[in-house]
Design goal:
Layout (H helix, E strand, L loop, with lengths): L3 H13 L2 H8 L3 H15 L4 E2 L6 E2 L1 H25 L8 E6 L5 H5 L2 H7 L4 E6 L2 H8 L5 E6 L8 E16 L20 E4 L17 E4 L2 H9 L4 E5 H9 L3 E3 L9 E10 H4 L2 H11 L5
Parallel strand pairs: 3-4, 3-5, 7-8, 7-9
Antiparallel strand pairs: 1-2, 5-11, 6-9, 6-10, 6-11
Helix pairs in contact: 1-2, 1-3, 1-4, 2-3
């Protein structure tokens, strides 16, 4: 019967593209990785890699085996995380990381309830882009992230939705786009777009690039300021834009298709290592009932 080490060697080889790269990532000799995969092929009674080229390529059997191998590793990691949480060792500190586009006032409502149950736990609050929060969570820190939904999440993270926030397209009143009605989204390609991305230059799956001319920022308040200065158009949460709208400094983009409002889901994320702890379960429960609007 094959072992977890064999399955891990197989999946990491697929992910990295070579036996040597898999060996470096796992901190083992290449011969160990090759032997693991050879033994796995014997146990499966199938050739999983075609080895005639410079780099190993999955055979048809390997392609069929891969999703099952990935699922097994995910479940194995969840088992390890659950086992480590059996003692329910409550951390001394917990960080609540929030995307700046999500109103902090909604989250503050749960603080008193949380601290009444855990008066000795020190709370820390952090603002960052959703993608940067995901990166922090993968480092297994005692952290709860409140982010805008992303299509691709690491398998080590557990998540649930806690509501949604309305977005719309905005431009400064002084911008040339403010004086015309845009026929369609493609017309915006002619004007600079302002976009969110993380500190390591990852682009959000929610904030799609339309224009070839782009300026980037890592939070929505920077995007707002760039928009107010006339540097381009952008997609903003309605509550972020509200004050500038009321001051008549910002307008919703005049567009022929008037109902362009987007609803962005807001997710609560926790690492599997912590998500089964009572403290983290309580925080999720409290966050389910917050009003984001």
């Amino acid at each position: 019967m094959f072992s977890i080490e064999q399955v891990q060697a197989f999946v990491i080889t697929v992910n990295t593209g070579s036996f040597s790269a898999a060996a470096r990532q796992l901190g083992k000799a290449q011969s160990v990785i090759s032997q693991h995969i050879m033994n796995l092929e014997i146990d499966c009674n199938s050739t999983l890699f075609e080895r005639t080229g410079r780099y190993p390529q999955l055979t048809l059997a390997g392609e069929k085996f891969l999703p099952h191998a990935q699922a097994l590793l995910n479940q194995h990691q969840r088992l390890l995380n659950s086992a480590s949480a059996l003692s329910d060792s409550t951390p001394d500190e917990m960080t609540i990381a929030l995307d700046e586009g999500i109103p902090f006032r909604a989250v503050t409502k749960v603080i008193n309830q949380l601290q009444s149950s855990y008066p000795n736990v020190t709370l820390e609050f952090l603002s960052a882009s959703s993608l940067d929060i995901i990166d922090l969570l993968t480092q297994e820190k005692p952290l709860t992230g409140i982010i805008f939904s992303e299509l691709n999440l690491p398998t080590c993270l557990d998540f649930e939705s806690t509501g949604s926030i309305s977005f719309d397209l905005y431009v400064a009143k002084s911008h040339p786009l403010a004086a015309q009605v845009v026929n369609n989204i493609d017309s915006l390609r002619l004007h600079r777009q302002l976009l969110i991305r993380s500190r390591n230059a990852q682009a959000s799956s929610f904030q799609l690039q339309v224009s070839p001319d782009v300026l980037y920022a890592d939070n929505y308040y920077l995007l707002l300021e760039l928009t107010l200065q006339g540097h381009g158009w952008c997609l903003l949460p309605e509550h972020v834009a509200q004050e500038a709208l009321e001051a008549n400094e910002l307008i919703r983009l005049p567009i022929e298709f008037e109902k362009m409002q987007w609803q962005a889901n807001v997710d609560v994320l926790q690492h599997q290592k912590h998500s089964s702890l009572t403290l983290f379960k309580l925080l999720r429960k409290l966050l389910r009932d917050i009003e984001l609007g």
